[in-house]
From TrEMBL:
<dbReference type="Pfam" id="PF00122">
    <property type="entry name" value="E1-E2_ATPase"/>
</dbReference>
<dbReference type="InterPro" id="IPR036163">
    <property type="entry name" value="HMA_dom_sf"/>
</dbReference>
<dbReference type="InterPro" id="IPR017969">
    <property type="entry name" value="Heavy-metal-associated_CS"/>
</dbReference>
<keyword id="KW-0067">ATP-binding</keyword>
<dbReference type="Pfam" id="PF00702">
    <property type="entry name" value="Hydrolase"/>
</dbReference>
<feature type="transmembrane region" description="Helical">
    <location>
        <begin position="138"/>
        <end position="159"/>
    </location>
</feature>
<feature type="transmembrane region" description="Helical">
    <location>
        <begin position="171"/>
        <end position="193"/>
    </location>
</feature>
<feature type="transmembrane region" description="Helical">
    <location>
        <begin position="199"/>
        <end position="217"/>
    </location>
</feature>
<dbReference type="InterPro" id="IPR027256">
    <property type="entry name" value="P-typ_ATPase_IB"/>
</dbReference>
<keyword id="KW-1278">Translocase</keyword>
<dbReference type="InterPro" id="IPR059000">
    <property type="entry name" value="ATPase_P-type_domA"/>
</dbReference>
<keyword id="KW-0547">Nucleotide-binding</keyword>
<feature type="domain" description="HMA">
    <location>
        <begin position="18"/>
        <end position="84"/>
    </location>
</feature>
<dbReference type="InterPro" id="IPR023298">
    <property type="entry name" value="ATPase_P-typ_TM_dom_sf"/>
</dbReference>
<feature type="transmembrane region" description="Helical">
    <location>
        <begin position="101"/>
        <end position="126"/>
    </location>
</feature>
<feature type="transmembrane region" description="Helical">
    <location>
        <begin position="382"/>
        <end position="413"/>
    </location>
</feature>
<keyword id="KW-0812">Transmembrane</keyword>
Length: 729
């Protein structure tokens, strides 16, 4: 097959630096990350290599004159990792395929272990009594007939991982597993061939069964269910209407728009570029970008951003950036950077496993050589060494974290909290500061009427019908708050002012304070509800002013109090106006707040906190929160959030209440304690079991039973995480 031309996937810079993003198969742990980054760093032409452990992607920069892009892929192949240009749909399909394979392998190993155990029970009973050697050999060969193809199929994930590591000149946890499985199978076949009393096919298959449980649970938790590029693409315009010097217009691809060009943005269209308004007046809905719910006036001299929605009037915009360099492009870049940085977090099980492989190899080799030195025959010494490999198998270590994750995830699910990242529980348990966005997070996403007493019941229907006739976001929000969907007829809309219907004494007006002549009423309402959006209504002599704003989420006060009690500091980072943020902060007693922040500025604040050693829990819901959600130590998002915010968050919670945030923290801290207990148990188990195996007092079968028992203890301890969820119910 001809080699694929990778030049189309390369990004070029003016200084001769090229970069490319590659999806890489086989990245499973921090060791893989270190092997890739260290291996690529040894190539002189490669300037930087960064592994995104969560997404299994590698970003590489190199000097274009010294290296072809194909050479980068070849270098990764030499390190034992298959790489290809990143394509979201291919990566998602690959993850789903691997998950299905692990589930099939788990089923095969479980079915085979049950059948082999039935045969082994007969052999054990016969060895204690007086089994006929021919019958014993027959049972052993039947076991071999089941175990050998099962091991070849079910053990493939471990064998392939071990081979990749060895090809790269490294070792990982799968190397001793592979050695132990292969040696145990070889010794069992040799024992069966020589009519021996013992074979260990049952122990090998049982070992693979328990290991596959851990691997499948880990894959289930690690699998990503998001496509960041697709979420952002929904906001990015493909074309723009360019204005020529003679006033004519032409629709052109966004890539053909250059800084300095003039583009026309009609009402109802999304702004396609970052730039300055030259002519026209309108209102811009910036909610997806800044979190600001109230439309912002746009006129000559005002800056507008790509992705925002033009509401009422046509605008002519002088382009500053189109495509690359826009605020949306910045969000995309910040997301990639933030997710990459967070993926460098090393899980508890990965940290514990770093010493595992060299320690086990050393113990097994020393045992083999030691018994040879004491005069034991090499088959007997090898059998004891295999026993050491099996009894120290990382089954308990492999299950220590995933088992707790599954039980804790179930407890979270009962609280309407969905865990998206396998290591999110560990990171959440470490959090010492909680940072909240305001709009849609501390408050409900839909504006509500903050002064309902100003609205007589008999006026609700007529005001709602008038509001439903407008496409303005505030009018639509008012209609939804009043529960009215049928619009009034014969409504006239004055751009930037409001709506009117009827004539003379029956004229009804809804809109700005000046349009409705309600200045006196507005003064009182503004004093009572600072920061709220005001909508006036007039019908004949009746005038009223309604304050629309975000009401606090249910249990917001209790949640903030619970987080403080748990030892967390509380802060607000918002893209909304300061006058809209301060009342919410005062109500909740939050002293630290920063308003009017762009997405990059939010991320800068989080980086400052991280530099001070803080473990930041970020809770947000908007597009402008996405980089901060991805860059925080751990993040939560309500289900009402934008798709991109949900994608960037580690945990998503359902419902309007903010209580799941405190519940998730409680469950996470309990789960982390159980993970540590399981890891310590695995250490203590090895401290007791290994000396017994080294002394030759255990067989591979006893080692497999002990290993299975340790896994059972770890699983039973993990079930205690359920109690944390019940306590929060």
């Amino acid at each position: 097959m001809a080699a694929q031309d990778l030049s189309v996937f390369v990004r070029h810079r003016d200084d001769g630096i090229a970069s490319m993003e590659l999806a890489v198969d086989g990245i499973r742990c921090a060791g893989c990350m270190q092997a890739i980054e260290g291996g690529l760093a040894r190539e002189p032409a490669i300037l930087a290599a960064r592994v995104n452990l969560a997404l299994k992607r590698v970003s590489v920069e190199w000097r274009e004159a010294l290296l072809r892009p194909e050479a980068v892929v070849e270098k990764l192949a030499a390190l034992g990792f298959k790489a290809y240009p990143f394509a979201p749909e291919r990566q998602e399909a690959g993850a789903a395929s691997e998950e299905r394979y692990l589930l099939r392998a788990l089923g095969v190993a479980g079915f085979a272990s049950m059948n082999i155990m039935l045969l082994s029970v007969a052999v054990w009973s016969g060895n204690a009594g007086d089994i006929d050697p021919t019958t014993r050999d027959f049972f052993h060969w039947l076991s071999a007939l089941i175990a050998l193809p099962t091991a070849a199929y079910a053990g493939r994930p471990f064998f392939e991982s071990a081979l990749r590591a060895l090809k790269a000149g490294a070792v990982n946890m799968d190397v001793p597993i592979t050695i132990g499985v292969v040696l145990a199978l070889v010794m069992s076949v040799a024992e069966t061939w020589n009519h021996g009393r013992h074979a260990y096919f049952d122990g090998v298959v049982m070992l693979l069964f328990f290991l596959l449980i851990g691997r499948y649970l880990d894959q289930l938790m690690r699998r990503r269910t998001r496509d960041l590029a697709g979420n952002l693409a929904a906001l990015k315009a493909e074309t723009a209407t360019r204005l020529a010097a003679d006033g004519s217009t032409m629709v052109m691809p966004i890539a053909a728009i250059a800084p300095g060009d003039l583009v026309l943005v009609r009402p109802g269209e999304r702004v396609c570029v970052d730039g300055i308004v030259e002519t026209g007046r309108s209102e811009i809905d910036q909610s997806l970008v800044t979190g600001e719910t109230a439309p912002v006036a746009a006129q000559a001299g005002e800056r507008v951003h790509a992705g925002t929605l033009n509401l009422t009037g046509a605008l002519t915009v002088r382009v500053e950036a189109a495509g690359q360099g826009t605020l949306l492009d910045e969000i995309d870049r910040l997301m990639d950077q933030a997710v990459g940085n967070r993926s460098r977090y090393v899980r508890l099980s990965d940290r514990a496993a770093r010493l595992y492989a060299p320690m086990v190899h050393t113990l097994a080799a020393s045992t083999f050589l030691g018994w040879l030195a004491f005069g034991l025959s090499w088959p007997e010494a090898l059998m004891i060494a295999v026993t050491v490999l099996i009894i120290t198998c990382p089954c308990a270590l492999g299950l220590a974290v995933p088992a707790v994750q599954v039980v804790a995830a179930s407890a979270l699910f009962r609280r309407k909290i969905m865990l998206k990242e396998g290591d999110a529980l560990e990171r959440l348990a470490e959090a010492d500061i909680a940072v909240f966005d305001k709009t849609g997070t501390l408050t409900l996403p839909e504006p509500e009427i903050l002064n309902p007493l100003a609205l007589p019941a008999e006026r609700r229907a007529e005001i709602g019908a008038l509001a439903a006739a407008s496409g303005h976001p505030l009018a639509q929000a008012l209609a939804r708050a009043l529960g009215v969907s049928c619009a009034a007829e014969d409504v006239h809309e004055e751009k930037g002012q409001g709506l009117s219907a009827g004539e003379g004494e029956d004229e009804r007006r809804l809109g700005s304070i000046a349009f409705c002549g309600a200045q006196a009423e507005a003064t009182m309402v503004a004093a009572l509800h600072p920061g709220a959006s005001l909508i006036a209504y007039r019908h004949g002599s009746f005038r009223t002013v309604l304050a629309l704003g975000q009401a606090l989420r249910p249990q917001a006060r209790e949640t903030i109090a619970a987080l403080r009690k748990a030892g967390l500091t509380i802060a607000i980072l918002s893209g909304d106006r300061r006058e809209a943020v301060v009342p919410i902060a005062d109500t909740l007693g939050i002293a630290e707040l920063h308003a009017g922040l762009r997405p990059g500025e939010k991320l800068v604040w989080l980086e400052r906190m991280a530099a001070q050693g803080r473990k930041v829990l970020m809770v947000g819901d908007g597009l402008n929160d996405a980089p901060a959600l991805a860059g925080a130590h751990v993040s939560l998002s309500p289900v009402s959030a934008t798709h991109l915010a949900q994608a960037a968050a580690d945990i998503v919670f359902l419902g309007e209440s903010l209580a799941p945030v405190a519940a998730a923290l409680t469950i996470a801290r309990k789960a982390r304690r159980l993970m540590l207990q399981n890891l310590w148990f695995a250490v203590l188990y090895n401290a007791v079991a290994v000396p017994i195996a080294i002394a030759g007092l255990a067989t591979p079968l006893v080692a497999a039973i002990a290993m299975s028992g340790s896994s059972l203890v770890v699983t039973l301890n993990a079930l205690r995480a359920r109690a944390a969820g019940e306590a929060q119910s």
